[in-house]
Design goal:
The chain is built from 14 helices and 7 strands. The protein is of the alpha/beta class. A 5-stranded parallel beta sheet has the order 2-1-3-4-5, covered by helices on one side. Helix 4 packs across helix 11 and helix 4 crosses helix 13. The longest helix has 30 residues.
């Protein structure tokens, strides 16, 4: 009897509480607000001269022209003065962007002056400051796109507004230091799937070498550095920024399915047309001001010539 009862119990099904159903993975929220952080690349340094605008045209405006015209807000915090105080001014940018609750952060050149700059005693000091920049970006939980650190040694041959280079040798990390900085960025990214990268370093190297670049059906083989960089050989021309925009958009589309599904502008010529249309009114006002200044300059030169040459007294006047 005992044996039969044991066998019966052994054969009976065992009822256990079903384990809780794991929650479905959270779908990425649609991207409607993009915050742009960075230094002079993001700030559009110097392109107002080329585009005939009263102010430099920021990277965010280039990017907005490639996105659908409705349903997106692109807020650009690019600061051309970030190099003066990268730690404090960078924190201010991040604070402002966090308050906007962005769905996506574009920070292509945000880290540049956390590794570049003068006053460093050792390469370790550059890496230390880079960690501060990475810590600021880590405050965002949304997807982030950043750039690596390019070698801008060529800028030592450039001419800025004062006729001299805008960077010094001491601002540029040694090759071994630059490799360390980029390796640290790569390692940091590998631990954060939400972070992607635009390869600014390789893009600049190919542009400087006059090698062909291809991007989503566009092909560009610059004939000279003047197509790519302004005379200071550090900041991109408008066309250079167009290509940076396309590269950024390409990474964004590969990183976020909701962006990939949008009707994005991939054609360089169309993107430039949109940019010129978006800035048409301000360009017209600026051109009018420049024409007026030029007219005043020519008039002043004419008066100066008259004073220098003098006005001869006509013969035969004043007598009988």
């Amino acid at each position: 009897m005992q044996i039969a009862l044991t066998l019966l119990l052994a054969a009976a099904p065992v009822f256990q509480e079903a384990p809780p159903t794991p929650p479905a993975p959270e779908a990425p929220r649609p991207v409607t607000r993009i915050s742009v952080l960075g230094a002079s690349l993001s700030g559009g340094y110097g392109n107002s001269l080329e585009l005939v605008t009263p102010k430099d045209v920021r990277l965010g405006r280039f990017l907005a022209c490639a996105l659908p015209q409705d349903g997106f807000e692109v807020i650009d915090h690019g600061d051309v003065w970030l190099f003066t105080q990268p730690i404090s001014r960078g924190r201010e940018q991040v604070d402002a962007a966090l308050a906007e609750e962005p769905d996506f952060v574009v920070a292509l050149d945000f880290l540049f002056w956390y590794g570049y700059g003068d006053g460093y005693v050792s390469d370790d000091d550059r890496v230390r400051d880079l960690e501060l920049g990475l810590a600021q970006l880590d405050r965002f939980s949304c997807p982030i796109i950043l750039g690596d650190l390019p070698d801008v040694t060529v800028a030592l041959q450039g001419k800025g507004p004062l006729g001299t280079p805008v960077v010094t040798r001491g601002m540029i990390p040694r090759e071994v230091a630059l490799n360390r900085l980029n390796a640290r960025i790569a390692y940091w990214m590998a631990e954060r799937p939400r972070v992607s990268q635009v390869p600014l370093a390789s893009m600049l190297t190919r542009m400087q070498a006059g090698l062909e670049l291809t991007m989503r059906g566009n092909t560009w083989k610059p004939d000279s550095l003047a197509e790519v960089l302004q005379p200071d050989l550090l900041h991109p021309t408008a066309r250079g920024t167009l290509w940076v925009t396309l590269a950024t958009l390409d990474v964004m589309a590969r990183a976020h399915t909701s962006i990939a599904a949008l009707p994005l502008v991939w054609d360089e010529a169309t993107l430039r047309e949109r940019l010129m249309a978006a800035t048409a009114a301000e360009r017209a006002r600026e051109q009018k001001k420049r024409d007026a200044r030029e007219a005043r300059r020519k008039k002043a030169e004419a008066r100066e010539r008259e004073r220098n040459e003098g006005t001869p007294t006509p013969v035969g006047t004043g007598g009988g």
